[in-house]
Specification:
Number of helices: 8
Number of strands: 2
Low-confidence stretches: 1-5, 167-187
Distance between the termini: 40 Å
Strand content: 5-15%
Helix content: 55-70%
Radius of gyration: 22 Å
């Protein structure tokens, strides 16, 4: 791990147990690497971030056997109907999606991925996904449990809630059973 704490003091480099700040720095490095990879992927596919999110949403729905409508994209991506229309036009123009008659409502238009989109995404991301699965596969059961506990706590720590007086950070630092029982008692 690094030999320099956030506080600015040097500490024993022989320590094999990462400090809390080391974990946060590793998460930051992972986010930066992930962001860079996604930018490269979007660039190689000629897409912007919204287009890529839409394509992932479309492919995930297709794997579940669901045919999406334009309004599904608007809700998922939190964009206007006009923006969705332009987005779907781009996906269709670039060969990633097709408009079809929706099987549940023949008056409605469904959006389906093309074979090209699935092949393109798999070809672009397949090796990276394999490396990620391989990395996770090197962890023991107890390491996976600890990692899942840590990542879930980190997710809760950054989630924004609309509940007055609720502190996501405070609740994420206490055991789940304590946080749940405290919220249930209205304190």
């Amino acid at each position: 791990m690094s030999s320099f704490r956030a506080s600015g003091y040097w500490y024993d480099e022989d320590s094999s147990v990462p400090q809390a700040v080391d974990l946060l720095n590793l998460m930051r490095r992972y986010r930066e690497a992930d962001r860079s990879m996604r930018a490269q992927t979007r660039g190689s596919m000629g897409m912007n971030e919204t287009d890529m999110s839409a394509l992932r949403f479309l492919l995930a729905a297709h794997r579940k056997g669901k045919i999406l409508r334009q309004r599904d994209f608007a809700e998922e991506l939190c964009i206007s109907n006009a923006s969705v229309s332009a987005l779907i036009d781009r996906l269709c123009r670039d060969g990633y999606a097709d408009r079809v008659v929706h099987p549940a409502d023949r008056r409605s238009v469904g959006i389906v991925p093309t074979e090209y989109s699935d092949t393109e995404v798999r070809g672009t991301l397949h090796k990276m996904h394999e490396r990620m699965i391989e990395a996770a596969g090197t962890l023991s059961e107890s390491e996976r449990l600890a990692t899942a506990k840590f990542l879930n706590a980190m997710i809760r720590s950054v989630q924004i809630t609309d509940e007055p007086g609720h502190s996501a950070l405070r609740d994420s630092t206490m055991p789940q059973s304590t946080a749940s029982s405290r919220q249930g008692h209205g304190t």
